[in-house]
Amino acid sequence: MNQTQSPKKTTLPREVVKWLQNLDLSFYPKNVRRDFSNGYLVAEIFFHYYPLSFPLHSYDKGTSLSAKQWNWSQIGRSLQKQSLHLLKEAIDGTIHCKSGAAEVLVQEIYTILTSRRIIDVQDRESDFTDQQYQELLPALARSTASKAIKNNLAITEIMAKPDICTNQKKAEVILRRHLEHKAEERVLNPGRFKVKPNRSQLSANNLAPPSQGDECFDSPSGGGTTSKLSSSSAMTGATVSFKEIKVHQPVKHSLVNKGN
């Protein structure tokens, strides 16, 4: 295969890319998520190793949901004959173009057919959401709750299983995960969300013991009381001085008549 056909950027490991290039496929998957979704390329890969079990003339090159379901059902039956198994979550995610699903599936196929182990296959999460992509975006550009549901619940996924309760549960899981991440962001970046401290936090700050540098002096003065306070900040090293205040006591007049 011509080396120039390989994509400029791919999320597949380098050894997997080279392996695909040497299989002489009908076309090179420039968009991994899209090009593997209908299953035809997967059938081509297995045909290279098991030509009798994966006859290519029985597979559809179309991109409709019915074509995808037909191809993957054929692949499933052929895999059973060879006692081979693929991760169901990865297959479903690939059919519905979920984030990272096709990459995990291709690496799994590579491990099965070449007996070479890739650590990344075992370490990748199987939820196949766009969370990793969202974390790369600036905070203001990340998805809202409704956008998160739209991004992670494909229309073909709803069409494949049109049950309302099933899709409602999927949407609830996506929404709950989105809100959990938002809550984590508020904790990590309270300033950006203008989060104000609650009463318990304010009380804890007010009840904090004074530093050792705090001093209080009371001294009497003729005709009044003088109070002087000085406080040294342990954190900044600055000294805060308070102005002296003199309080004059009023003269008390005797209520007893001096003449008596």
Automatic annotation (TrEMBL):
Q: What is its main location?
A: nucleus
Q: Which UniProt keywords apply?
A: Nucleus
Q: Where is this region: Disordered?
A: 191-235
Residue stretches making up the CH-like domain: 16-111
Q: Name one Pfam family in it.
A: CH_2
Compartment list: Nucleus
Write down the superkingdom of origin.
Eukaryota
Which Gene Ontology terms describe the biological processes this protein takes part in? regulation of cytoskeleton organization
Protein name, per record = Spermatogenesis-associated protein 4
